[in-house]
Q: What sequence folds into this?
């Protein structure tokens, strides 16, 4: 089986590619802007005809699109998160119409949730910022493409190799800098929001199952832990893993990102993924934080 992974050097892409390489008989090809890519592809600028030539050369049985922008202005986000999937679908229709497309979306597409009510794939979407809006546009383009395609709407990923652009990776860096200094102070934003954190290794396993599942799949599947926890719980859990002896200071209203917007509660129902893929999250938040801190499980 030939599998092309777009964005294979990114946080999610690296884990997905590593997981797929364990499949017996699988040939996993990396596509992206990295010098080590088997196929050089920049979804923000590549033309459909050019990408179609690349796909014809790669001859994939499946394509996993892990490429995406999480930061930057609205134009940058739209180029990668919305234009990219549109170009990819057009190129696939021309060069590899029989290949399955697994596209990584985001739970940010749903927008603010209602406390105590996990969202299902059929619930309304109302993203709170440019990130969620551009990811939702990408999802709409994939689901309307007519291809054998599924969008995995991923919650807040955490685990080994988390990048400093997100809170878990940034917090790990701050804790390493602080060490065990009892006078150290971590000054963070409001930690009262609830998020559905999912181990990045569980995301990779869901992508593997989506690639290999027989027959057509639902157009959208939630991939999260299915449990909302306060962001404060993540912070204190990682601080405990690090043996942090200082104190954490929160500033109300501070530290919000373009991804989180004004979302105070977010949780996804993962029943459909269990039904379609036989997938359930296998790792707890504590396990994800332990591997993040220890560095275990990094591709």
A:
């Amino acid at each position: 089986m030939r599998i092309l992974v777009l964005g294979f050097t990114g946080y999610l892409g690296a884990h997905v590619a590593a997981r797929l390489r364990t499949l017996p008989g699988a040939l996993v090809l990396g596509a992206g802007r990295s010098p080590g890519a088997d196929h050089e592809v920049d979804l923000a600028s590549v033309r459909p005809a050019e990408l179609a030539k690349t796909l014809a050369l790669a001859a994939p049985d499946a394509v996993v699109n892990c490429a995406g922008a999480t930061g930057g202005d609205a134009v940058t986000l739209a180029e990668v998160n919305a234009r990219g999937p549109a170009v990819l679908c057009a190129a696939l229709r021309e060069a590899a119409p029989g290949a399955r497309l697994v596209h990584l979306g985001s739970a940010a597409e749903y927008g603010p949730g209602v406390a105590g009510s996990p969202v299902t794939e059929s619930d309304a979407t109302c993203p709170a910022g440019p990130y969620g809006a551009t990811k939702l546009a990408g999802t709409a383009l994939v689901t309307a493409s007519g291809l054998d395609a599924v969008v995995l709407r991923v919650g807040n990923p955490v685990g080994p190799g988390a990048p400093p652009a997100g809170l878990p990776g940034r917090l790990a860096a701050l804790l390493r800098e602080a060490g065990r200094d009892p006078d150290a102070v971590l000054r963070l934003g409001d930690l009262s929001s609830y998020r559905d954190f999912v181990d990045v290794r569980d995301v990779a396993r869901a992508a593997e199952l989506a690639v290999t599942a027989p027959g057509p799949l639902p157009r959208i599947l939630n991939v999260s832990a299915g449990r909302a926890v306060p962001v404060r719980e993540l912070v204190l859990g990682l601080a405990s893993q690090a043996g942090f002896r200082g104190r954490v200071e929160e500033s109300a209203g501070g530290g919000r990102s373009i991804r989180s917007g004004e979302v105070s509660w977010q949780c996804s129902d993962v029943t459909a993924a269990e039904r379609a893929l036989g997938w359930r999250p296998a790792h707890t938040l504590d396990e994800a934080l332990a591997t993040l801190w220890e560095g275990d499980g990094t591709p």
Notes: The chain has nine helices and 13 strands. The two ends are 21 Å apart (CA to CA).
